[in-house]
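Researcher: Going back to the complex we discussed earlier. I've cleaned up the inputs and rechecked each line, so this should be the final set. Can you rerun the prediction on the complete assembly and write out the structure?
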Amino acid sequence: MTESDFEIEFRALLSEPQEISERAPSSLKARLYSGLIRKQQENGPLASLSASVKAGNAICVFEKLVQIAPVGEQAKSPFFCAACHARVLAELFERPPIFWSGCPYVDFKKS
Amino acid sequence: MQAQYLLRMSEETGVTEYQRLVSGVLAKDRKVTAEFVSHCADWIYPFVRHRLPRAELVEDLIQEIVFAAWQALPSFRGEANLRSWVMGIARHKLDDCYRRRIRELEMSDEDESPAEQAITPCLEQQLDLAQRQKRVQRVLAILPEPYALALIWQYRDEKSIREMAQLAGKTEKAMERLLARARENFKRRWSDDGV
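Model: Rerun complete. Updated structure for the full complex:
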């Protein structure tokens, strides 16, 4: 076998794999999301939950309790998922036992 | 499914759906940020996974790309679609990663094999595509890292030796030698893997 034959074989062997529909693992998405939110918080608070609802986004049952509470908008800005077990489970497991709606960590599992 | 929906929307409405995502992330809307992360991860993950043989490096690089895309979002004009724009950042970051790793990693003496070997094992095997891809990934994962990266850089990313040499800060001769050793090493380990 000549050197150019090997070149052709290498090119064929190492060419782009065909799995174009491959999705990222949900636990990776969960860790990326938590990390990006931390980055966003480094230079100021997140948008409040009320702003998120106003923009047409769904929020989870726990966030809803905060959103309807008679408190200022600033109190609705922290990242409440930081204290939620859904985040911990989603960051650690591919199929975490979390099912409620409006939770990004549950949505990662579905996507 | 979300990604397909987004792509369909973008085909129908130009880049408005992407712009909704971008403005939501810039406004620090946590829910839109989650959508952004989900799309970016699905776009970037297969690209990076097939170009980095060491699994432990994949997540770090994907995180670096997502953070870089987020930081650069204010400069996204919407002329390209968001996916192409993010993948441009991913390619750039991957080149940076290859350059760093190939520059930094020194080969030990035992990894230096003779330029050509008497035996030239045949790479061609009657394997189905999936089996072959798994075997390629397996062999790349056990190669010394600079060899694996150099092979992927040349054969998967189709970089020329000149480009690779420039990016890695090496001479073209040095890059040719690295590739020759990488090919020999790959052939040897490919045969071992098939036994």
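Model: Worth noting: The mean pLDDT of chain A is 90.
Researcher: Good, that matches what I expected from the previous run.
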